[in-house]
Amino acid sequence: MSRIVVEKNSRIFKKDGKHFFYLADTCWSAFTNITLEEWEYYLNLRKYQGFNVIQINILSQWDASETDLNFYPLPYKGEKSKVFEFREFNEEYFERARHMCKMAKEKGFELALVVLWCNYVPNTWASKMFGSNIMPYDFIEKYIKKIHETFSDLEPFYIISGDTDFDGEDTKEYYLKASKELRNLAPNLLQTLHIKGRLDIIPDELIDRIDFYFYQSGHNAGNPAMPYLLAESFYKKYPIKPIINSEPCYEQMGYSRKMYGRFYQFDVRRAAWMSLLSGACAGVTYGAHGIYSWHKIGKVFAPGLGEGFDRPNPWNDAIKYPGAWDYGYIRYLLDLYGIDELVPVNKIKNPTNDIRMACTKDEDKILIYVPINTNIKIDIELIHYDIKIIDLVNKNVCIPNVEIKNGETTIYMHNFEQDVLIVIRK
């Protein structure tokens, strides 16, 4: 097997000496909710679409949909509440989880495994709401050893935290201990933290322990600028490491806080490109409502948990949402044009921040994401450049009308119906 690595002062991943673009799908509830036949189908489709990483929660996802399967990582008491007894492990669960991971690896996927979702840790926003399954501090070492024995030879990314904030000192202590124990056992495997939506704060004690940054622009309709604002924040304020929007809005997810409305294909595509061109160029994660919780017809989804999302469609509908193909197309385009690291550039003269621009380190290629059609004014004379506009809906390509005058370039409006990517090459 070949490990994914991060070189010092690098914004990207490498595998076998070549650029590795982290294109993940979110399947938090895989180990508890998915049959092996469903898993095979899911992996095949996501492989076809170009994904190369699957994100999974090692323990039970607190807002997973109801399931008839009976796979839980720990013994529990209370048939409905599923309050875990942190003493021993259900060996069958971990054997099955490992088998599912091996199936994914055999199809070419990397694994990104969450160690401690925030509901298992004291004084997080989630454990304050539902604190019945907080893991005892003294159990962490035993749990980390079990994780290492089960998964580390498969060389996963370890996501130490899940959806967490860091308001409590004991919260930080839990994650520090988990990180240290795993680093001692698996020193060469990459670690990160999956932090709460719209948050850009990582405690000083943890910054140097992680190898790359995850942020999540999230599912709040009132913050449409979050994909690029958070990318800019991590790019500017923290030491140089790869940055990933690990949870943009999920396709067909209801707006958070029980607000009426859902995110659609355009919204998730917009979030991805805005993130990538604003500093988070190491990769991006897709999510479909109904997949992360693995929802099935007639089963309960708990809309009162977490941020109060509306019900999902069943997984066999959600897996066919078109936005997944758009994310695969991102990876295809970056490979096609030989693009690895992207450097954010602020040369757009239009009076909006929603048009995002980035260039390669050698400034040989420039990408501009335009969510809504307009003339684009750029504070550069793009003489001797090839300029093309790619329709991100139908994948058509046009050669635009361009005017270069007084030190500026104007790329005139295209005639596609939705968002586009402008590709500029010397």
UniProtKB/TrEMBL annotation:
Species of the source: Clostridium beijerinckii (Clostridium MP)
According to the record, the segments passing through the membrane are none
Q: Which InterPro entries match?
A: Apiosidase-like_cat_dom (IPR025277), GH (IPR017853)
Taxonomy of origin reads: Bacteria, Bacillati, Bacillota, Clostridia, Eubacteriales
Query: In this record, what's one Pfam family?
Result: Apiosidase
Question: Per the database record, which ranges form the Apiosidase-like catalytic domain?
Answer: 8-335
Question: What name is this protein filed under?
Answer: Beta-glucosidase
* Superkingdom to which the source organism belongs: Bacteria
